[in-house]
Amino acid sequence: MQISVDDSAHTSSRERACDWAFRVALLLLIVVAPWPFGSVTPVPAAALASALILLGGAFLLTRLYFGRAYRTPGWHWLAAALALVVLQQLPLPSSFSETITPAIARDYEVARTFTGSGAWHPMSLEPFQTRSGFLQLAGFLAAFWLASQLFRGGTERRVLVYTVAFLGVALALFAVFQKARYGTVLYGRFPVPSGTPYGPFVNHNHFAGFIEACGLLTLGAALGTLRRNAPLAVLLGGTSALMGISLFLSHSRGGLIAAGVGLAVLAWLSRRQAFVLAGSVAVALFLAAFAPSSLADRVLTLKNPGADHSVQFRLDLWSDSLGIVLDAPALGTGLGTYAAVIPAYRSANVETRAEYAESDWVQLLCETGFLGIFIALAFFGAIGRVAYRTIEGERSERVRGLLSGLLAGVAALLVHGLYDFNLHIPSNALLFATMVGLIAAQVDEPPRRWKPRRLHVLAAAPLAVLCLGLTVLAVDAGQSRQLTRRIDPLLTDPAEFMDLIQDLARSRKRVPQNAQTVFLIGRLYNEDAFRSRDAARFREIRLEQAALSFRDAIYLAPTRGRYWFELAWTEANRGNDALADELFERSLELEPHHSGLRANYALYLASRHRLDEALEQLERGRQLVPGLTPFDALSVIAPYIDEDPLMMQRAAGSGPEAEAALARYRASSGRRAE
Q: Helix count (H) and strand count (E) of the chain?
């Protein structure tokens, strides 16, 4: 069976040159994407998304011009995915959301009570995050489509395999060098608080996800060329083995499990099952014999999941995520909103913040509901059918080996996604989308041809405008995120306040949906109010400006407890204690496991001589992990209780740590008194 119809005789040299330019551009993006920390920071992520959207749009325009394109399996499911995310961002009447997702309607209704916003609202609980997710998704779907159209011939596929093999080897060697040379400091300049970086990735699991896909694809290609070109097969197999060694050295248990699943898929699909299994067992035994003891200790922790912090954290998080699914089962809470929504559902008394669900599948279910899961499964089902039909009838060992490697790599990343979030790392998602696109390219159909007409010329203009508009949106979103990441109102020189407010105001004008921008403007107004030596009227104006900003932030992101908390403090400073009480309570409903919020609420209560309530908040803050220390609790309330021994003991708690904190506080307060 011929995998794809050779259409080169019907294409002009100009068209072939144009196609190669797009191939090289896509491959360059794949090669570059892992090095800036997997492109997870705002600017690289935005640059990658905008580049992919531009590339996809430009290629679409060339297809309209040349009048030739191939059918892409599953395209209607991809269109449905984009439509779902667009629907989540559309302002809709509250009666609609009350019917579909009552929990989302309730959150917006509570926000409307304090902000005076209208009755219409989006289905996403944070539209800016959903729009950013939409732009990322559009970029990766463009990569999928480009791969499905451009890598159909043998030469093109070999170029891609060699590129991926080269990239995998470069990453493997760099990872070993950096670990030995710099430890947990990426590139010798950027310390990683988690202490688990590997290669250019902040997290070793994400390095493992990328390298396992590269290694399996390369190994599949090696098996396909074993009979026709043994030296090349040995070279590709050696590079794959080198990637496997770096995977072991990353100490990623999830990566090892996913790679094992990928090898099993490769052995099942390959016509050399015995060869694959024997080679895998030999490599595994060699690495088991010479692997560092730290890796063996880490793998053995899987025998007792309850005693392993990372495993228990995942289990607790997935259990808590079920509450989100039950509250928004149909359409989810909005793509990219997990970090904003999950704090209100956490059950364990831990303060560890969860930016991701530690599972691509669980997060997809929470953010897009059962409809999103259905679309994803239907799409992968369509791709799987194409791959199965192709591999069953394919006689070419080279093509069969390549397709087996692709399926093994995709399967490994999908399995890895059950207990990690590799597909939320842009570099990994780009590689995954390209591999899936390469599988889709195996459709045994001639290209569809048409004669370019005036209608196609007319369609090109809005398409170009749409792509440029999406690119501008992606760039603006990245710059807005980067600006909010670098501003800390507490560490800012007062002389810079107005300049920063103006920078944020310009950013807000370009990206009005970013709630964090508005929130930081309010924080700066608050700081300016209390650091200024001007008259009380100036302070009153600044507090009023801060309150308006915080209300705008709540309107844009109604489940961010910190926004409610800052508005509560501002209203308290304006003398509106009754309103402040309601806002404080709402903030703690949304983030009940934030010891900093409880400590500051206790400070507010103590300043109003509501000491029993303040002590209750301090006690609840101390119960969290890591939570408030006894000394921090004493520092909050001691000035308001005249160092009453009973209240001091209640604030500190019991045990050796509490006694040490009491002694330390008394000693420090004695020195202050002197």
A: 28, 6
Residue 64 identity (one-letter amino acid): L
Chain-centre distance of CA 461, in angstroms?
33
CA distance 442 to 151: 9
Report the share of the chain in percent with pLDDT over 90.
56
Contact 529, 569 (CB under 8 A): no
Q: Residues 474, 34: contact at Cβ < 8 Å?
A: no
Nearest C-alpha neighbor of 630 from the set 651, 611, 644, 613:
651
DSSP 8-state class, residue 448 = E
List Cα–Cα distances, 622 to 210, 345, 598, 638, 645, in angstroms.
Answer: 40, 20, 10, 16, 19
At 9, list the tokens: 């005789």
Tens digits of residue pLDDT in 172-184: 999 999 988 888 8
Cα separation, 264 vs 251, in Å, equals 21
Whether cis (ω within 30° of 0) applies to the bond prior to 191 is no
Interatomic CA distance for residues 60 and 448, integer angstroms: 14
Query: How far is 334 from 5, CA to CA, in rounded Å?
Result: 41
Q: What is the residue whose two structure tokens read 């204690």?
A: 577
Which residues lie closer than 8 Å to 238 by C-beta, 6 or more apart? none
pLDDT digits (tens, 9 = 90+) for 412-433: 999 999 999 999 999 999 999 9
Residue closest to 561 by CA, chosen among 602, 589, 596: 589
Give one word for 653, left, alpha or beta, with left for phi > 0 and alpha for psi -120 to 50: left
Do residues 390 and 444 make contact, with C-beta atoms less than 8 angstroms apart?
yes
Sign of the C-alpha dihedral, residues 354, 43, 49, 383? Answer: negative
CA separation for the pair 343, 597 (Å, rounded): 13
Task: Name beta bridge partners: 651.
Answer: none
* Element of type H or E holding 166: helix 154-182
Q: How far apart are CA 331 and CA 367, in angstroms?
A: 7
Residues with Cβ within 8 Å of residue 299, at least 6 apart in sequence: 253, 256
Instruction: Quote the tokens at residue 256.
Output: 């090892």
- Tokens describing residue 329: 């089962």
What is the mean pLDDT, run by run of 10 residues, along the chain of 674 residues? 46 85 96 96 95 94 82 90 95 86 91 85 94 96 94 90 96 92 88 83 95 94 86 90 90 90 85 57 56 53 61 91 93 95 90 89 96 96 86 76 92 95 96 95 71 64 86 94 89 82 92 95 90 74 93 95 96 94 95 93 93 93 90 89 84 89 81 44
